[in-house]
Amino acid sequence: MKHSIRVALGALSLVAVCVIPTAAAAEGELIVDGTDYGGTSGCIDLGPNAPRKFKNNSDRLVTIYMNTHCVGAASGILRGRSSGTYTGSSMLRS
């Protein structure tokens, strides 16, 4: 009886691990001054405040901030499948 309970619990654990969805990765290229940030999402530190060329080849929105922690007023918002030059030190890809 104990053996069959352990087997059943083990099988349920395996099913739970296989069924739980994982967080979706950002898809598509996001190129900032020649660097591809395509596989990243969330707040991304770009370094010191400077004008940068953005090319968003994904369907996701990118918000550019003057602050390094993606807070405060946005200096630019880049829609999916668009490009532009914006000044900022961080960006949030949603």
Task: Please indicate the percent range of residues in DSSP E strands (runs of 2 or more).
Answer: 35-45%
CATH architecture of the domain at 29-93: Sandwich
The secondary-structure element order is HEEEEEE
Strand order of the largest sheet: 2-1-3-6-4-5
Estimate the mean pLDDT confidence: 82
> Based on helices, strands and strand pairing, what is the structural class?
alpha+beta
Distance between the termini: 50 Å
Which range best describes the helical content: under 10%, 10-25%, 25-40%, 40-55%, 55-70% or over 70%? 10-25%
Query: Total helix count?
Result: 1
* Unreliable stretches covering 5 or more consecutive residues: 11-25
Question: Can you summarize the main beta sheet?
Answer: 6 strands, antiparallel
Q: Give the CATH level 1 class of the domain at 29-93.
A: Mainly Beta
Q: How many β-strand runs? A: 6
CATH fold-level topology of the domain at 29-93: Gamma-B Crystallin, domain 1
Overall form: globular
Signal peptide: 1-25
Protein name: DUF2690 domain-containing protein
Keywords: Signal
